[in-house]
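Because discrete structure vocabularies remain unfamiliar, it helps to consider an illustrative case, giving the amino acid sequence and backbone structure tokens:
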Amino acid sequence: MSSVSRTTTADNSDRAFRKVALEDHLHIRLFDARVVSLEAGYWRHLGVRNNFWRFYANPGPGAFVDTAHGRTELTPDVVVFVPARVRFDCDNEGHVEHLYAHFDLVGLSPHSPAFDRPLVLTRDPSMSRALVELGSDLRRGGPTLAAQLKVKSILFQALARLMESLSPEETERQRRINAKLEPIEPALRRIDGDVSRRWTVGELAKSCNLSESHFARLFREALGQTPAAYATERRVAEAARLLLFTDLSVEQVAAQTGFPNRFHFSRVFAEAMGEGPATYRRRTPP
């Protein structure tokens, strides 16, 4: 084989590896999954906004979410996703069983026109059967390891169907966004892997084999924000997760996510979420 052929093969392999690596970065971090019984009005909340995704697959009618795009009913023939950062009101008019999952969709850019509102997917027979089985598992034993795997399987299949249902324009925009993310993907991995660390632009640029200025420009073009702003966003997202799904104190959450003290943490959290960490912990519904 000539040196030209070997070089071409190596280049192709490198491109293929980087493509696989980017796709492999897409994963679900499951925070919680349960079936709960809600009395009428228990789910009445205004202005809910989280840095994680929500999934609802209620076995009966009676609950709904309202956004700027209108009302979305949680009926037994559909599943509903509420993407991260979407602000909504919610309520239940009567007694309902509420099957929900909270999760973080890591590796997929939120900067898509498809992710600014609730996403509704009609259940097919196989999904309905899987949800009935999952509901039985969650009622019997809570989010066991087997149940967690079933939740993730359902979420991935539902999300795949949603991606297939995007309009050609939305699909093309998502493709362009993902193409912009590829050169900076190693930096995103670093930030997501250790949100408490104060990464420098130099460290992140080096992980992508880019100069600092070129890296900073590509990062802003891909995500519309600086690396520091993105790192703060991910730090707040992890703090929100710890507030809701652990018993750590606010001080402990601040320390674990890299904030120097509770006061700085509370200010940054309130700027991002519209309310302080203690209020957020009390007000956030299932």
Summary: Strands lie at 27-38, 45-48, 53-56, 63-67, 70-74, 78-82, 88-92, 96-106, 119-122. The longest strand covers residues 27-38. The chain has two domains: 27-166, 168-286. The chain is about 50% helix and 20% strand.
